[in-house]
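Let's do one together. I've listed all components of the complex below, 600 residues spread over two lines.
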Amino acid sequence: MTEHIDVSDPRLTEIIIKSKWMRRRAMQMVHSKKLGHIGGDLSATDIVATLFFGVMSYKPSDPLWPGRDRFVMSKGHATGVLYTALCSAGFFTEDWLETYMMPGSKLNGHPNRNYLPGVEANTGPLGHGFPIAVGMAVASQMSGSQYRTFVLTGDGEQQEGSNWEAAMTAGHRGLSSLTLIIDRNRLQQGAPTEDTVGLDPLDDKYRAFGWEVIEVDGHNHAQLLEALGTPHGSGKPRCVIANTVKGRGVSFMENKAKWHHGVPNNEEFHRAMEELGQ
Amino acid sequence: MNAIEKQAIRFDCRKAWAKTLEALAAEDERIVAVVNDSVGSSNLGGFRDAFSDRLINVGIAEQNMVGVGAGLANGGKIPFVSAASCFLSARALEQIKADIAYSEYNVKLVGQSSGVAYGELGATHHSIEDFAWLRALEPLTVIAPADPWETEMAVRWAAEHDGPVYLRLSRMGVPDLGADANGEYRFAPGEARLMRKGSDVTILAAGTMVHLALEAAELLSATAISARVFSVHTLNPLDESAVTAAATETQAIVTCEEALVRGGFGGAVAELTSANTPVPVERVGFKGFQTTGPVDWLFAENAMTPTGIAEAAHRAIARKAA
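Okay, and this is what the predicted structure of the assembly comes out as:
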């Protein structure tokens, strides 16, 4: 993967380096433990890396610092990307990643805030993170706090009705500190979203619910930085539809539903690591 | 007013809940209320008028309501999430499990008009399964107050306690059971409130059934049976020492609840006694979905009356080991 780096913004250089590391590390975790959701990890990597290394304020030494920006990983199965981001951000050391999904590990198959610093909500069942993020944004609004709240959902996850309850509340209350990012890779567990229960037009749906909508290439860090890093001027919550590729960065995984929770064999792993670069 | 006249007055515990919440909110600005268009049924009109910016009405959206509660707790608030218990406990059960109990968020879930308070509206609006569902969630403290005093104490404790709580309130009128008669007892979750001493049988009652259990003890005393009565306001954690002492000392137990006995309070007591101190346990409560009807009629149909409880006590005593 090559990307033109805008040298005018040093954050981009770091985000790109971190993205590459996260993809490689997640691939190693999934391969070594023979567990995980690598397809969704790879589609969400650039989004999560941009948030952690270009946008959000947080203090790894004080994970519950009240002024921290909140990130809720509503697609809680994508732990490969979440855990590598938290590790790289300094919430815990790299040896913790070696315990990924092992018996009794703090690095559950789905995140647990009580075990792992930096995790804000125990997600996993889909459609839970968005309402929680709305509550965080309401608390911020009520207290006059400055923190922002980001929630990442899968696109298939948008089929859960609880998201639309949350979308209504956020739109109604004008939660301008809330940003929803939809990882729009167009594949759910077994099939394309549009063949299962169509989501399009997602942009019109969110606009109708009172949201500001921005559509970006979910693998273009500059576009992500622009969409996620700029404050909302509209007095509305912001929905960023990030068009992504499931399995991004590994040619034989890209756009293949089987890599939702497929595990690479040794040969596939070596090919994947080669493609993900050094 | 004498004791009998006082017993005849019935109180809607929702008033004690609302009054206490308003008093606490005046002292602590972290306290907020979250509702699903249930301001009236939660008796929160006064709260809304006094703290309009601290009442979050998410509309008719229970899953969202509970998730928003978790997010508010994350943001440093102390949210009281209040809704009819049938919708709160059932519609949002996965959110209660994952977002509140498993996440151990400091959220207070308040189930209003629980049990069969909405008698005529039918089983969709009855909340008799909530004891079984919610006592299964170990970090969640489950409290069903019996009278206005227990209600006030429970709301105060919940506000101070750092952890998830389910308060199960009723709008059914109950007498003031007399906090002044408590002696040394101070309200504490997990510590049952002794209402009457006795030695032949123990009646363990929860919530709206406590005053009926006391009437049953009066009936039993007329037949020379001495019945111990507890208000077991906390199902989770259960007062294991009170239950075990009851089993050891009186050798027979009756449980009373405005809920499904299968998996509910009676189930909890049966689990504990069968493991530690096996004695006869007669469970008074609902056995399944209920038909439509007024509350008193539904209670009578299910022998949830002083006479029905006394008969259950007789059955338990008859089953004692020789």
